[in-house]
């Protein structure tokens, strides 16, 4: 451990030894230091153990690695390129996705479930292409469910024009290679992390000492899934 200093010698110790100890303290050198790495697997707390930690100690921490100094804000972008149909007008069907474009701290499962590793407030947006093969205008309702339960006031209604009275003509178009055009997914959804404290604030919770007792301290932090987030600390008092 760096910046070690010796304890004061017993009564009758050599003046030189006493002077070395005092000088080290004056120069700010202390062995009340250490390092810790945040627990992973979605953990929100990490415990450090040091016999010099007391009830009234001040514990100062700073990041050591780049990943520890970096804030990670979860996001997710998914899409689907297949046709999806609704066979019944009395049954709700989940919109499904088959491709994950980007993901950090969030994931797609069961083709239709958007999962997050961090609790908080999120912004979820979607884009869906509708097609109506009936001769009447049809309405489509789109709403959100959280853990299988409908979210109040989340419904949007869309009226899809009918195909009745459509004129059919025969057209021709030479084969084209330019300009190239992106594919049109049937459904797109994006999920963006806004706040760690739900609706109460728009601030992000950082890493801090939330509790301490004799010999240990609890470090509270956002749910962590990133390895090698290492900090060092110094204990004062």
Low confidence ranges: 1-5
What is the terminal-to-terminal distance?
19 Å
Radius of gyration: 30 Å
Number of H- or I-type helical stretches: 1
Shape: elongated
Strand pairing plus helix content: what structural class?
mainly beta
Please list the strands of the largest sheet in the order they lie side by side: 5-4-13-8
In N-to-C order, the SSE pattern is HEEEEEEEEEEEEEEEE
- What's the pLDDT, averaged over the residues? 83
User: What is the number of strand segments?
Assistant: 16
Proportion of residues in extended strands: 35-45%
Plain-language structure description:
This protein has 237 residues and is mainly beta. The chain has two domains: 28-69 and 204-236; 75-195, no CATH class. It has one helix and 16 strands. The strands form six sheets. Strands 5-4-13-8 form a four-stranded antiparallel sheet, with no helix packed on it. Strands 1-16-3 form a three-stranded antiparallel sheet, with no helix packed on it. The chain is elongated and about 105 Å long. The two termini are 19 Å apart. The model is unreliable at 1-5 (pLDDT under 50).
Keywords:
disordered N terminus; four-stranded antiparallel β-sheet; 2 domains; mainly beta; 16 strands; three-stranded antiparallel β-sheet; 237 residues; 38% strand
């Amino acid at each position: 451990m760096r910046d070690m200093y010796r304890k004061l010698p017993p009564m009758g110790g050599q003046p030189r030894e006493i002077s070395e100890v005092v000088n080290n303290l004056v120069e700010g050198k202390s062995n009340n230091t250490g390092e810790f790495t945040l627990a992973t697997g979605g953990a929100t707390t990490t415990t450090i153990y040091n016999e010099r930690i007391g009830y009234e100690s001040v514990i100062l921490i700073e990041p050591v690695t780049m990943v520890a100094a970096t804030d990670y804000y979860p996001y997710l972008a998914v899409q689907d390129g297949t046709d999806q149909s609704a066979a019944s007008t009395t049954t709700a069907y989940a919109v499904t996705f088959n491709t994950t474009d980007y993901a950090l701290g969030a994931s797609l499962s069961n083709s239709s479930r958007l999962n997050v590793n961090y609790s908080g407030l999120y912004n979820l947006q979607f884009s869906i292409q509708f097609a109506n093969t009936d001769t009447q205008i049809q309405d489509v309702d789109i709403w959100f469910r959280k853990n299988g339960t409908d979210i109040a006031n989340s419904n949007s209604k869309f009226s899809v024009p009918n195909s009745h009275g459509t004129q059919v003509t025969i057209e021709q178009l030479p084969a084209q290679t330019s300009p190239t055009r992106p594919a049109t997914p049937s459904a797109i959804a994006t999920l963006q992390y806004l706040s760690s404290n739900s609706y109460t604030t728009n601030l992000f919770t950082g890493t801090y000492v939330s509790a301490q007792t004799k010999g240990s301290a609890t470090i509270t932090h956002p749910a962590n899934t990133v390895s090698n987030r290492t900090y060092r600390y110094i204990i004062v008092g």
